[in-house]
């Protein structure tokens, strides 16, 4: 995402349209915070670092919840971000959960339209639905009346201190940009694993999938697996197909979909995958498939709609996107393959 948008939200006689934020909104929220909350705007490096930190926390398994208002161009013009943290329980908060309203920001062009009230109200309702009953925030004098209307009360006892740490690694500047030696910079960038699959059907375009013996959360899978060091994606797809079915897909490789997933409770790294067209198999070739019993115990071919009842929703959504890509000839981009988000 580029700089914060200058356009306001769509004109509406009613309440601004509010939606729950997703990990893809992390950078937009960080940019609004940088531009309109912090006393000094963040550098691009710090915007990237904050966005990378926030994105996985906006998943259902994370501790961040946010609501946003979009401009007509799809950029974010208003947001409210809350962070959930544990406290010792008390009668007023028996679940021992507190929510800090960490960021409330609205682009100047979208102010005086009820955006802040709308996103904060949605955030408080969401946190309360998750059994958060203690709410905290820092506010300016200008915004204080809004929060009082929503039920917040001032506290003269609030005190705050920031103790800065000395930087561990100095960042010499070369040509006006921060620079680190390659081996140190490598420790700061995104960590990800990669996989490659082939999408195979019978001669009537009915998807073929394999039943896993090791993954009850993803019982039916396309043919494929994790890339080995030194492999390229198509090499992985061919090797995995040979190992799992005894079939060697013919080339040249034809990409059907790119799949991306954020890390989560099931896996600590992001996941990037490529799905190639594995072709159409005759009944005889399907009957001749030789499974690796350590990985799969059944081959099944079904019309696409019949797979829906056998798979988690996002697995079926990915399969549907791949099938549509082969039908239309337009490669799919499927970016919600998030770990722990069934």
Report on the architecture of this protein:
The protein is of the alpha+beta class and 342 residues long. It is built from nine helices and 15 strands. It has helices at 26-36, 44-57, 115-129, 144-149, 182-186, 233-245, 283-287, 304-307, 313-328, and strands spanning 18-20, 64-70, 76-86, 97-106, 134-137, 173-174, 177-178, 192-202, 207-212, 220-221, 223-226, 255-261, 270-281, 296-301, 332-334. The strands form three sheets. Strands 8, 9, 10, 11, 12, 13, 14 and 15 form an eight-stranded mixed beta sheet that branches. Helix 3 links the parallel strand 4 (97-106) and strand 5 (134-137). Helix 1 packs across helix 2. The chain is elongated, with a radius of gyration of 25 Å. It starts with 17 loop residues before the first strand and ends in an 8-residue tail after the last strand. 30% of the residues are buried. Mean pLDDT is 87; it is low at 1-8.
């Amino acid at each position: 995402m580029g700089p914060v948008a200058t356009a306001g939200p769509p004109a509406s006689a009613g309440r601004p349209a509010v939606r729950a934020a997703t990990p893809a909104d992390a950078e937009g929220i960080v940019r609004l915070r940088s531009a309109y909350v912090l006393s000094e705007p963040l550098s691009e490096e710090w915007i990237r670092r904050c966005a990378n930190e926030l994105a996985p926390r906006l998943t259902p398994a994370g501790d961040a919840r946010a609501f946003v208002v979009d401009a007509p161009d799809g950029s974010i013009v208003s947001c409210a971000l809350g962070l959930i943290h544990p406290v010792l329980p008390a009668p007023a908060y028996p679940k021992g959960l507190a929510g800090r309203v960490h960021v409330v920001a609205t682009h100047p062009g979208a102010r005086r339209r009820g955006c802040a009230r709308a996103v904060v109200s949605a955030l408080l309702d969401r946190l309360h639905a998750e059994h958060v009953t203690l709410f905290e925030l820092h506010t300016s004098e200008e915004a204080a009346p809004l929060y009082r209307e929503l039920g917040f009360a001032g506290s003269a006892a609030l005190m705050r201190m920031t103790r800065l740490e000395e930087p561990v690694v100095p960042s010499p500047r070369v040509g006006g940009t921060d620079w680190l030696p390659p081996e140190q910079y490598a420790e700061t960038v995104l960590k990800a694993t990669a996989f490659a699959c082939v999408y195979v059907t019978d001669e009537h375009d009915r998807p073929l999938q394999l039943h896993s013996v090791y993954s009850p959360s993803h019982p039916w899978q396309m043919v494929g697996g994790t890339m080995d060091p030194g492999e390229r994606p198509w090499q992985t797809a061919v090797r995995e197909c040979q190992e799992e079915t005894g079939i060697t897909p013919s080339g040249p490789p034809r990409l059907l979909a790119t799949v991306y997933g954020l890390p989560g409770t099931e896996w600590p790294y992001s996941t990037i995958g490529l799905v190639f067209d594995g072709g159409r198999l005759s009944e005889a070739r399907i009957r001749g498939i030789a499974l690796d019993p350590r990985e799969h115990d059944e081959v099944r071919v079904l019309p696409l709609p019949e797979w829906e009842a056998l798979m988690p929703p996002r697995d079926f959504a990915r399969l549907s996107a791949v099938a549509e890509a082969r039908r239309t000839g337009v490669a799919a981009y499927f970016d919600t393959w998030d770990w722990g988000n069934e």
